[in-house]
Structure formats: C-alpha cells, structure tokens
Hints:
The chain is an alpha+beta fold. It has helices at residues 2-14, 105-114, 116-135, and strands spanning 21-29, 34-37, 40-44, 47-52, 61-63, 67-70, 76-78, 82-84, 92-97. The protein has one domain.
Amino acid sequence: MRIVVLALTVLITQGCASFTHYPVQYDSAPQAAKVYCDGEFKGWTPTIVLIDKDRIQTNGKLDVGMCYAEWESGFKQNFFTIIDTNEDPKGKVFTVYRPQSQIGILLDLEAVNENEERREARREAFIKAYEEAKANSPCNTLNPNVACVLPIEPE
Length: 155
C-alpha cells in the first residue's frame, strides 16, 4: 500500500510531460491592454493563451502568429511571434511596454483600475481552460507509461 501511495505522490508532484498545450502569457505595462492574435481577441493583459503543441516544429520553434497589445488610448505594440520551445519548455512570458507618450496615458492608467470585472472573467476562463486541458490529458489515467507534468493550478 505504501508503494502505491508513494508512486501516486511522485506521479502527482511530477506532473504530465505529454501535456497537449504550450502556455504563452502576454503581459503589458501598463496592464489592461487588449491582446489580439491573428486578429482574434484573446483577453486583457496579463492573459494566458494555450497553443496546441502540434504547432511546434521539429526544431522546437513555435510561430504563435501576429499578436499585439492595444491600450484604451489606441496605442499598439507587437509581441514577438517565434518561440524557441527548447529554451523555454514550460511556457513563455512576453511583456510589451506602452510607447513613451503622454497622449492618452491617463485613459490607459484608469483602464488598469476599471478592469476588475474583466480580470475575474479572465480568471474564470483560465480555470475553465485549465480544467479542460487537465480532463483531456493522458495524466488523468493511471498509466505507468505516461510521465505527468500538469501546469500550476490557478490560485
């Protein structure tokens, strides 16, 4: 019985290496900018986008598409589009900075405080995506041939 408990503890603490998505977090300064990837709204910064690991090329490169942050003032800033998943195997965080201009800065800073509702919606969406990924993971079966590494549980 102790061996089974120890094996389960190791399995749970080590997580699922064959996880099906690669997490990319988009952030900005100031926060509360909208994130778009290939023209599709993904959320407000900071936000996590789960990208299907099937898109990773054999050399470890992942093209996440054209993504950018757009602040309430209309300023935009592009994120990098290519990720080397060999250098960042657990995920990548991108941060862009609002252009240095006083035009619309108050509007952008006010948006940071006004988006509590949006943050809660984003958190709920993340938890839902996490639960879906966890449910579809081979980690939810006790298969000794699968090494499991689940993402960090949301707070």
